[in-house]
Amino acid sequence: MGGNCWSAMVRNGRCTELLSQKVSKEECCASNSVATAWSVEDMDAGTLFFWRVLGGGVPCYACKESCAGVHCGEGKKCVVRKGRPKCVCSPDCRGKNRHKGPVCGTDGRSYRTICRLRKRACRKKTSTLAIAYYGHCQSSCDRIHCPTGKHCLLDQNLTPHCVKCSQRCPSVAATGGTKMVCGTDDTTYQSACHLREAACHKGKAIPVAYKGRCKRKPQVEGRRHQHHPAVDCVWYSLIDLSFTT
């Protein structure tokens, strides 16, 4: 008769999350996971419920007592803490990027080093957290040093981002002049793609005022400010830029 296999030992040598029943210790511990645990007794449903829910967990034994044979995965390493092996985040910070000092993450937070950013990404189990640009997070592009090949761009919320401006926009011959748009900077662009490309190089978002070639505004006496027609007026976000961040 086998025992019970558990996903992890929670505290005081007890387990609550059941993986499988009526298995041997060898079968339960074959995965070499540092978290898996095993209990000797094969309990009936009633007894198992009592121990798991009311009794604080079933007494169990960790499959691994050392880091021997443990594979934690990329960016992690096995360490023994309180007599039990555990996989902890330990990213390799010896890569080609030799930047020293603070960096701004894509989550808008400043990190003292690249290594700290990578450790947080590991702990949060996310692949989207990366380096936005070098230095502390800023509110403008004035003091931002983007990685090679990227340019600083302010989005519609005036938040800086480092993006790649390289994008293949359709040629004038391909569009036939039918895709023209007028930007709020009173400049006519061959297409919305060309507008986004110009905005990227200028480092500032340029909303589309309306479709078509920009029209000359009549001078109205007594009015100092002119407004663009509210036709197809849109603010585009960084997602709409179609550039790689």
Automatic annotation (TrEMBL):
UniProt keyword Repeat, yes or no: yes
One Gene Ontology cellular component: extracellular space
Gene3D superfamilies: 3.30.60.30, TGF-beta binding (TB) domain (3.90.290.10)
TM region positions: none
Domain Kazal-like residue range list: 88-139, 163-216
Organism: Timema californicum (California timema)
Residue intervals of the TB domain: 3-41
GO-annotated molecular function: calcium ion binding; collagen binding; extracellular matrix binding
Record bears the keyword Thylakoid: no
Record protein name field: (California timema) hypothetical protein
Top-level taxon: Eukaryota
PROSITE patterns from the UniProt entry: KAZAL_2 (PS51465), TB (PS51364)
Pfam families per UniProt: FST_N (PF21333), Kazal_2 (PF07648)
Keywords carried by this UniProt record: Disulfide bond, Glycoprotein, Repeat, Signal
InterPro entries (alphabetical): Fol_N (IPR003645), Kazal_dom (IPR002350), Kazal_dom_sf (IPR036058), TB_dom (IPR017878), TB_dom_sf (IPR036773)
